[in-house]
Amino acid sequence: MIGVFSHFRSVLTTExxxxxxxxxGQNSRGYIFAGSSDLNEVGWYSRNSKSKTHPVGEKKxxxxxxxxxxxxxxxxxxxxxxxxxxxxxxxxxxxGPSRGARRVGRGGSWYHNAQFCRVAYRDYSVPTSxxxxxxxxxxxxxx
Length: 143
Known about the structure:
This protein has three helices and six strands; from the N terminus they run βααβαββββ. It is of the alpha+beta class. It has one domain: paralog of FGE (formylglycine-generating enzyme), CATH 3.90.1580.
């Protein structure tokens, strides 16, 4: 069993991976938020959070069984932010810019209104930022 774990690598999701997962992957029903078009069903945001984060899984999951991808906390992505990146990016699984000053954040938070929690909304912060409304989601790649 020695070395079994060397075949796995945990990393921040890329922005494309995050959005694919939030939209429900191949099971997507085209919702505005991750799992519903009614944010109250799937996410904590400024109108229902009582100004605090909540334990993951208290709201409905999305089509892939993932919780809190809209609201609760903005999630850091691995990619650097570039405002016009998607205008010229590949259509399938685009890789973000190789460098930059700010990292992408996705999903909205308990502090923000509904528009920030839409699956399509893109935010950014400098990598040294820390906020009560900012977190991350790890993904695991099998090598």
